[in-house]
Amino acid sequence: MDYTGYIGTYDSPKSSGIYRFIFNDRTGSISPPGSFYKTDGGKCVAFAGKNLIVTREHNNKAGIALIDEQANVLSESLLEKKTPCFITFHNNMIYTANYHDGTVLLYKIDNYKLQLIKHLSIGANAGCHQVLFWHNLIFVPCLNLDCINIYDTAKDFTLKGKIPFAKGTGPRHGVFSNDEKRFYLVSELSNELFYFELQPDNSWKLKKQLSIVAKSATVDSATAAIRISINNHFLYTSTRGSNLLTVFSISDGPPTCIQQISSAGDHPRDFLLSSNGDYLLVVNRSSNELISMHINRSTGLIENIVARRPVFEGVGIALK
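Structure tokens predicted for 6-phosphogluconolactonase (320 residues):
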């Protein structure tokens, strides 16, 4: 089956905005990405139903735009100083996290128009990197604060608690297990994987902490993304600098590293897993390539490169 994918890029002489490609989940093939929507600051892209949300800069303002499948701008909101580093669509709402501004913004879409619902200010340079959802709570990893801030959406986003980390950890991205009783998070600065289990009082207890790269390599390494397999048996992470993809088994309890291979390029900023679990698509920003890799669903191991296509300064990736 063919799926349409989109890639956000950093601004450069050879790239501008959002690129589109076609991915086939039976063969792992990818078409050459072509220019879809030209804009400054178009590094992030996500789906909002049939439409797309993209980051955007214009006239020294930054924020997001809602565009359709023909790249027509339906609405935009440029309320931030810098472009967000993360966007997602959840329960018909758009959430953005802004690393530089230290904010989380919440929008609803009313008749194809973006309407700001909440502006959550966490602090200048807090390093807000993601928004995660657990029941009526949102988890916001704050890289520069070395903590996850937890907010209660049912109580006007009041701060409900924090999960602290050691100074210099740099919590970045996380995922919950399908049953929402286990939580996994990667850190950018210390290059570690943290495994938490839900307790009877709804608190989260750290059960295991693993190094993703050797301590001697952490100076040049920066772990970026984390994904969980559809069968909930494996975790996948990417690490820039050392340019690694790491696979962890989680089916029998705490995570155990079972594979670590090259990302087949330089600077794997983001990646995703196909909906059938057979392929991993990774964007290597500095070597300017989108790469498709086959996964053995039984073992979780990445087996071989299926296809590679040029795309300059690729950062974010979405597939539907």
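The chain has no helices and 28 strands.
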